[in-house]
From TrEMBL, chain A:
Ranges that cross the membrane: 6-28, 40-62, 74-97
GO molecular function (one): sodium:proton antiporter activity
PANTHER family tied to this protein: ANTIPORTER SUBUNIT MNHG2-RELATED
Annotated protein name in UniProt: Na+/H+ antiporter subunit MnhG
One Pfam entry name: PhaG_MnhG_YufB
Annotated keywords: Membrane, Transmembrane, Transmembrane helix
From TrEMBL, chain B:
Protein name according to UniProt: Na+/H+ antiporter subunit MnhF
Protein's cellular compartments: Cell membrane
Principal location class: membrane
Transmembrane region(s): 6-26, 33-56, 62-82
Superkingdom of this protein's organism: Archaea
Gene source species: Thermococcus paralvinellae
Any Pfam family the entry gives: MrpF_PhaF
Record membrane topology: Multi-pass membrane protein
Record keywords: Cell membrane, Membrane, Transmembrane, Transmembrane helix
GO molecular function, one term: monoatomic ion transmembrane transporter activity
Gene Ontology cellular-component terms listed: plasma membrane
Amino acid sequence: MSEILFYLGALMIVIGGICDLFGALGLLKFPNFYVRLHAATVGTIGGAVVPLFGVGFLALGADFLPHKYAIAGASFVTGIIVLLAAPAGAHALAYAAHKARIVKWQPKVDHLAEVREK
Amino acid sequence: MLESAFMTLMKFVIPLYLLAFIIYGIRAFKGPTIVDIILAVDCLSFDIAAFMAILAVYFKSVFLISGAIILALWAYLLDIYIAKHLVSKEVGV
């Protein structure tokens, strides 16, 4: 049972590292702030939440850790905090960038500007 | 047995995370607008929190985890403050 938890956590940590690298490459290469938000979602949810839950499972299954329950519980709490805080923060940042008009772009459809002009 | 498997895993995982940190740092230094810089610092903080949780297992220490929780909360606070300042040109209630 502990080996299953350990190898599940190790798989989640590897998936998190790969998602983290791809999110960073997208954040560097994409042309626009609103397109970069998409890569930032890959970098935070796939690159921080998944390895945090993976560390929790790995610490529950590991037999060489002296404080494994403390590490697992705090990792789950940090994962839930990032899962709730990252979309709210990115959404507030996108709304502020649209409201302050600091990013130049030519959209096909802009429902927020149509609503604000009424 | 499991400890040696974990050390082998770390040899593959640590270069991935360090490369991602360097690329986020490049975007944070050369970002054209302020929201790009804040987004890059945000991603960097969340990923350093995840990496500190991995290092807590690597060094067998509990004290790195409390720093990870505070780092995740600080990145959210930075987002909200910058958004509030950009919308209303002040930070406060």
